[in-house]
Amino acid sequence: MRTGVLLLALGIGAVGAWGQVFHPLELGAIQPVALLAADLNRDGFPDLAVACHSSNAVVVFENTRAPGASFKDKVQWTLEDAPVALAAGLFMDPPCTAAPACLPYTAVLPSLVVATQYQPGLVRFTPVETKAPFLKLVPGGPLKVEVLPFTTFTHLALADFDQDGTTDVAVLDGISMKVGFYLGARAKLAPAVPAQGSLARPPDLSLALDGRDPYFLGVGDFDRDGLVDLVVSVDGFLVFFGNETREGKLQFTKKAEVKLGTKLKAFALADFNRDGYVDVAVVDPEFGALTVVLNRGCWRFERGARLKLDGGPVAVVAADFDRNGLLDLAVAEKDANRVVLILQELVDLGKVERPDPATHTVPAPERVDLTAFRMAHAFEVGRAPVALAAEDFDHDGMVDLAVALHGENKVGVIYNPALCRDCAGRIPGQARAAEEKTPEAQTPSPEEGPTASSAGRALEASGASSAWAVEEVSRVNLRQPGARLLAAGDLNGDGKADLVLAGVDRKLLLYQGLGTGEFLAKGDLYVGFDPDRLLVADFDGDGHADVLALSFATREMALLLFAKDFTVALGTFRSLPAGVKDVLALQLDASKGRELVWLKEGGAMVWSVGPKGTFLEWSRVPAALAQISPRPSPLYAYAGSSPADLLLVHYSNNPGELSFLRDGRPLALFQVAQEAPLLALSTGDLDGDGVFDLLGLEEGGGVRLWRVRKEAP
Q: What letter does residue 288 receive in the DSSP assignment?
């Protein structure tokens, strides 16, 4: 057990030492049916709003900004009828004198819009105290519901349909088979729905639907013409309507329909393959499936991935849960009492050509992602999950997930769902099985390089008891032209050093070392910044090397704790300690994990890493650390596990030289073949013989490998 340590206090905004946490919230109301996340008091943190059908109420939870437990206080707004759908948006309200319901000047505040069922109406309210600083959430109601000329409402959406700069409302009537549109008027300062009240007028436009059971609607610019279009799920079809508004006159025309199942309950709209078009992920509880529909342009849609979900999927939300730059999915299965996390991984890049009005801005052929979806984990959340919302509630850099539990009258918040320790499969962004990978994307190419021992000479050094021999064994081209940094360590526990590259699209690229000088690509991890330093070492003592990436430019760091088979068990993202110049991983005590040694002005600082990613600062710093200096550039690398055997290795491009130093004294100097200049140098045991080897990164992604042997003098 370590002694003499102090637990670091992680303040607001310090990320992710919490790992995955489930936080239940009591509603104090009955039968939640709809859920959304939005920053309702404009403090920078998303709050939660829940529509509770049997209580005729909307419950709003304020985000208290506490890591791993963001929600505590709640307020309730009551209505005259049962809410069935929720939306949040900004509305411009005219001045008025009826304080505190409104303000004596033109105001734009976040509002909630509620659709009610039995007396079909639209109600809008702002759950924030209408006086500066507009931060306190307040209760309200009962709000009157004016009955609109519809039979019932099932869903609604907000958008600026007529492009006049104001928020409009589209509402779906599932019995009368129509969509009603209510428009705001910017010139008149007339919002689509009045503040703290209910709408009482006919719709500005009604759109008739064919079929029997429309349930869900959504909005997006499907044809990339700058106008917001509409999609409605009707029975087993997705029906798309194009917005053809001209000169302020709102008009929609049916453009396409896609048959996908029997009863499409809900969908999520997002650009899943990053081609610039809005795609659809839809769930069907009767068919028992999640289906992704890809938008190919010009109102052509193509069915993509389909996953079996036989637990009654009723809600779906899209977000980048694993930070690999691709949008993932979470699905609520009501009958199975669970939420399924589905991660999207990049397999390859493809090209597509299509006649499209936006080809003048997107040159043909367009590049598109070829991806695969995999079911990563199923969370047992409680009885009857019916609605989902995804946001980074605690601002730790990882998207969290909120779920409304219809059968328990609760909301559950899953913090960092992608950090589940038992998430099956590969790491985010990892390639498929080895036989599926393409040579271009996955297999580095060995190239001819020096194989004979490099000419070198050991320098006489006082107290030296060993000498080294250096042999350049190979050069491989990993085809990563943007890479600027590398580090090596045993990520999968096979005794051979694996490779991590950085500098490509804010990602870490992972390669498995085979012990022969060859590497196999294992995927990528998106960290959100381009690192200046990389460390690969076992920090938590579980037998698997972990990765620390940090940026001096942006003052942030990411610690990724690995389990087996290149699986990330936990990620921690936070700010760098003040004043640090460099960081090392050293074994300083009898524990299994290595410590982080921060080098800064005036001395060193030591942190230990706990099993859940927590940091512990040592109260006493070993005196031997005072002799260690920050590395001047990426062409310097430290080798060794403790201060006693620490070596500094330096590569010089002109002439090609490798020099070994200890305590600033030269121990050995080797002349090596002068190839392309190196960008960075690293050390790692490539062949598992217990002696460090050397790796150098060239411009363009080439890696040179030198085997080091320690010999008796």
A: T
DSSP string, 218-259: EEE-TTSSSS-EEEEEETTEEEEEEE--BTTB--EEEEEEEE
Report d(CA 201, CA 79) in Å as an integer: 19
Mean pLDDT computed over 62-79: 83
CA distances from 152 to 35, 143, 501, 695 (A): 19, 18, 56, 68
Task: Please tell me the predicted confidence (pLDDT) of residue 75.
Answer: 94
DSSP assigned state of 644: G
90-99: string of b/e by CB count within 10 Å (b at 16+)?
ebbbeeeeee
Structure-block tokens of residue 682: 């690293």
Please name every residue paired with 319 in a beta bridge, in sequence order, or none if there are none.
328
Neighbours of 168 (CB within 10 A): 26
Backbone angles phi, psi at 442, to 5 degrees: -125, -30
Instruction: Supply angle C-alpha 308, 306, 382, rounded to 5.
Output: 40
Q: Which residue has the higher pLDDT, 81 or 522?
A: 81
Instruction: Give the model confidence (pLDDT) of 331-365 as tens digits.
Output: 999 999 999 999 998 888 777 766 665 555 566 67
| 8 A C-beta contact, residue 413 and residue 71 | yes
Calpha distance 457→468 (Å, rounded): 9
Strands 140-143 and 71-79: parallel
Question: DSSP assignment of 673-688, as one string?
Answer: ---SPEEEEEEE-SSS
Cis peptide bond N-terminal to 632, omega within 30: no
Q: How far apart are CA 303 and CA 283, in angstroms?
A: 13
Q: What is the pTM of this model?
A: 0.61
Q: CA-CA distance, 628 to 646, in Å (whole number)?
A: 9
* CA 111 vs CA 88, 194, 427, 542: distances in Å: 6, 11, 39, 49
SS3 645: helix
Which of 673, 581, 578, 649 is closest to 617 using CA atoms?
Answer: 578
Closest CA to 462 of 664, 258, 212: 664
Average pLDDT over every residue of 575-593: 86
CA distance 232 to 228: 14
Burial per residue of 552-583, b for 16 or more beta-carbon CB atoms within 10 angstroms, e otherwise: eeeebbbbbbbbeebbbbbbbbbebbeebebb
Alpha-carbon distances, residue 254 vs 209, 217, 247, 257 (angstroms): 10, 14, 20, 8
Residues 427-448: tens digit of each pLDDT: 233 333 222 333 333 334 444 3
